[in-house]
Write a sequence for this structure.
């Protein structure tokens, strides 16, 4: 392995695996060895990977629920203000607070805001959008969106030692291993 | 019973000898290759039609809705027919992307991307009609809950206002859902494209997606929730569209069967449109191994089922009119079948109820040419269904002395034809610049994606897909 250049900070060690099965096994090994700052990369979600990595349940459901509640009660408050308080609208003599007739609008607003929560909440939880990422410095990593299966143990992990991590990944069956640096050195 | 049959495996979804790399290449190379000449030709035609639409709309705004064939008693004509028709077409995209996802129908992955694109563009075409037929389009913002010079707010108890919210939400959620699905595939194009500007643009729109499993974890959750939200949404949208009619007191409109009947019809026409587009695209872009004959057969079965549901609704309408005993209600159904618009009624029955009956036969379901023809016939039929509903009830309502025959003008026709220009302009741009099949999702349903299909040494073992022998009980 190359030695670390002075003006680059190490992001982590990236290992490539041949297929989903080997990546899954490697993730299990890394997880069992007590690493926390690591991630696997694949062109599609791999069945069973969440278990192998012991990922916690996503908080997204609660975000969506909150948005949905806002959509419903916000809509109810809006229509009440508009049709009952600000400009009472007499429609064929029916009661002003005519909630049953508002259900279509309330339903649509609930769905609309829930969907906002589901989409933007997901992007937020995933740390997207972002302009760049150290991993994009790796030429090999381009295949993560095509047919490459990668595992990266990050330098921020408390147990991280370049040599040890490299050995662990090699033993786990990696077909290629490289160190990924945070900044590309122009000079 | 002498024989019992066990679970029969689905045929493989992706035909041919493909691995992940060749799938990526097969789909995204379409975006990376130089633009084909035929694309420019098609785009030119679509642009011309779009121009026709823009001119028709400009003249409409200049002159007023008098240029259309609308007049008392038929004050709703082609505009509303086209609106309902286009919205209905959109519904198949959401059905494929959301409902089939919840039902774990993996075959949807081959067609969901462009069916969703079709949804978005169809809803755009649909939205134009109610917007321009308001007459004074410069105060169209009155339909939104925005402060205006009258110090009034919209009437939230009106079905037309419900429509604004339903179609608006539908368009927004469909676009978001589509975009969420696109992000990983845009990242794929980003990582393969050589062109500098292209790399930047795909880079921006893929938001820095890395395909990390921690990202996929939330992503899949989000996709599932969106599918769960889009499912009731799509059912509600056409229900609300049907309320435009059903909440009135016009004979032939004031019926409780309208919401489910409209939804079934929407899915029916939408699937027909997906088939029309799919049969052309798979040929031109050589995607026969992804959009297979098996897919076409499944869609034809849906066409048959929804066609029968629509046929059932036609029957029930007539039955309830008779059973309900209201004179005007009975009269309108008699007039539909034998009155001035009988030609449209029987055209509708022929196209929507009779033409899908071919699909009882497996050979016909798997016949590309026949499917293509029927998919177009169905959409003609579904246009006439909305025409029959909207026009007959108005032109022959309660008082025979006020009856009148409605005919469209040239401007009605040009506006409608023009919306195809809008649709195909966007659709061609989509085909050119975005991956038309969900690359990541197709990979995910390939047997190579399942870690169970590998042995201890990590070598791929293709799963045996065979029909099990029937068990014999003595």
């Amino acid at each position: 392995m190359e030695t670390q250049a002075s003006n680059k900070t190490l992001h982590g060690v990236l290992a490539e695996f041949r297929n989903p099965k080997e990546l899954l096994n490697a993730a299990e090994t890394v997880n069992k060895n007590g690493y926390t700052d690591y991630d696997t990369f694949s062109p599609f979600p791999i069945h069973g990977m969440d278990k192998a990595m012991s990922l916690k349940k996503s908080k997204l459901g609660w975000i969506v629920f909150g948005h949905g509640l806002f959509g419903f009660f916000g809509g109810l408050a809006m229509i009440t203000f508009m049709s009952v308080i600000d400009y009472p609208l007499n429609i064929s003599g029916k009661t002003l607070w005519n909630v049953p007739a508002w259900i279509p609008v309330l339903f649509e607003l609930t769905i609309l805001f829930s969907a906002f929560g589901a989409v933007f909440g997901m992007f937020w939880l995933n740390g997207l959008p972002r302009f760049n990422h150290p991993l994009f410095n790796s030429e090999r990593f381009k295949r993560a969106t095509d047919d490459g299966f990668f595992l990266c143990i990050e330098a921020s992990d408390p147990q991280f030692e370049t040599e040890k991590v490299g050995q662990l990944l090699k033993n786990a069956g990696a077909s290629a291993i490289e160190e990924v640096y945070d900044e590309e050195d122009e000079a | 019973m002498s024989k019992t049959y066990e679970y029969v495996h689905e045929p493989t979804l992706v035909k041919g000898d493909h691995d992940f790399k060749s799938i990526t290449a097969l789909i995204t190379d379409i975006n990376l290759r130089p633009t084909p000449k035929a694309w420019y030709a098609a785009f030119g035609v679509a642009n011309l039609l779009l121009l026709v639409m823009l001119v028709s709309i400009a003249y409409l705004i200049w002159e007023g809705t008098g240029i259309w064939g609308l007049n008392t008693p038929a004050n709703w004509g082609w505009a509303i027919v086209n609106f309902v028709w286009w919205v209905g077409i959109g519904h198949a995209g959401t059905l494929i992307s959301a409902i089939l996802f919840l039902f774990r129908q993996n075959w949807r992955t081959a067609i969901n991307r462009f069916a969703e694109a079709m949804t978005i563009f169809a809803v755009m075409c649909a939205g134009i009609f109610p917007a321009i037929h308001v007459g004074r389009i410069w105060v169209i913002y009155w339909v939104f809950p925005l402060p205006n010079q009258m110090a009034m707010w919209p009437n939230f108890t009106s079905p037309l206002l419900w429509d604004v919210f339903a179609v608006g939400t539908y368009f927004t959620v469909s676009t978001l859902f589509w975009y969420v699905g696109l992000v990983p595939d845009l990242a794929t194009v980003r990582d393969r494209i050589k062109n500098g500007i292209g790399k930047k643009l795909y880079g921006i729109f893929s938001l820095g997606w890395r395909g990390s499993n921690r990202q996929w974890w939330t992503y899949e959750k989000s996709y599932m929730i969106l599918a769960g939200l889009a499912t009731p949404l799509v059912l509600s949208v056409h229900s609300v569209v049907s309320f435009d009619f059903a909440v009135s007191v016009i004979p032939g409109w004031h019926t409780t069967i309208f919401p489910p009947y409209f939804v079934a019809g929407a899915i029916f026409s939408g699937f027909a449109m997906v088939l029309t587009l799919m049969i052309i695209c798979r040929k031109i872009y050589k995607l026969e191994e992804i959009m297979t004959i098996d897919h076409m057969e499944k869609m034809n079965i849906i066409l048959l089922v929804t066609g029968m549901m629509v046929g059932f609704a036609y029957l029930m309408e007539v039955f309830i009119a008779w059973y309900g005993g209201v004179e005007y209600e009975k009269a309108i159904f008699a007039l539909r079948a034998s009155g001035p618009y009988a030609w449209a009624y029987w055209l509708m029955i022929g196209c929507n109820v009779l033409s899908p009956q071919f699909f009882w036969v497996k050979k016909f379901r798997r016949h590309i040419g026949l499917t293509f023809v029927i998919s177009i016939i169905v959409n003609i039929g579904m246009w006439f269904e909305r025409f029959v509903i909207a026009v007959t009830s108005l032109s022959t309502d309660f008082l025979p002395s006020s009856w009148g025959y409605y005919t469209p003008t040239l401007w009605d026709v040009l506006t409608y034809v023009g919306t195809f220009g809008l649709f195909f302009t966007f659709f061609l741009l989509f085909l050119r610049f975005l991956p038309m099949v969900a690359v990541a999702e197709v990979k995910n349903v390939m047997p190579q994606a399942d870690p169970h299909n590998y042995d201890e040494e990590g070598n791929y073992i293709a799963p045996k897909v065979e029909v099990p022998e029937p068990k014999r009980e003595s």
